[in-house]
Design goal:
The chain contains 6 helices and 7 strands. The relative contact order is 0.14. Helix 4 (about 115-125) runs antiparallel to helix 6 (about 135-170). The protein has a single domain (about 1-170), classed as 2-Layer Sandwich (Beta Polymerase, domain 2). By secondary structure, the chain is α+β, with helices and mostly antiparallel strands. The protein is about 40% helix and about 30% strand. The protein is elongated. GO terms for molecular function: cobalt ion binding; cobalt ion transmembrane transporter activity; magnesium ion binding; magnesium ion transmembrane transporter activity.
Length: about 180
């Protein structure tokens, strides 16, 4: 689990804060927190349930894979399930990775099973950007989703090129060479 805490009054950013120190900051408007969990363990989910009061079904959705994106709105937070493609260079295949998001007034929690290069890069960039963090968690979520979507464009361009090649072969009467 990676953590980032921005102190709005002191305008400082602290990384890798212990869980016990974060509990007191939940709901405190003077702080913005981002917790990024790339391999959720049961103890992480139990800690989130206990300290953030997330609905048990939302936490269960983070562990199990669900097929459809969704948004659940609660009084204290919003829960989103999204899917983004990730290209595996070894198998040369695209696979979807589920990215779960909890958004509250002073926290953003992202949970996924697997590595997403763009999300890690976003975390690094945000950890140096006080101005972005000062705008709040909704703006932070916008940045995260925007970067994830931007990551998809080269993948889509490659797919478009492959489709174009197939169309050219079909409509030009070319045969595939073996």
């Amino acid at each position: 689990m990676k953590t980032l805490i921005y102190d709005r009054k002191k305008e400082t950013i602290k990384l890798d804060t212990p869980k016990k120190d974060m509990v007191a900051l939940v709901g405190n408007a003077n702080y913005i927190m981002w917790l990024d969990i790339d391999e959720p363990y049961k103890e992480d989910m139990d800690w989130l349930k206990e300290n953030f009061n997330f609905h048990p079904l939302d936490l269960e959705d983070c562990i199990s894979l669900i097929e459809r994106p969704k948004i659940d709105l609660y009084e204290d937070y919003h829960f989103l399930v999204t899917h983004f493609p990730v290209f595996d260079k070894i198998t040369r295949r695209l696979s979807p990775i589920q990215v779960n998001v909890f958004l509250g007034t002073n926290f953003l929690v992202t949970i996924r099973k697997g590595y997403i290069k763009s999300l890690n890069r976003t975390f690094e960039n945000v950890s140096k950007d006080k101005e972005l963090l000062h705008k709040g968690t909704d703006y932070l979520l916008h940045k995260v989703i925007d970067d994830l979507v931007d990551y998809c464009f080269p993948i889509l361009e490659k797919i478009r090129g492959n489709i174009q090649n197939v169309e050219n072969m079909v409509f030009d009467g070319a045969t595939r060479q073996t």
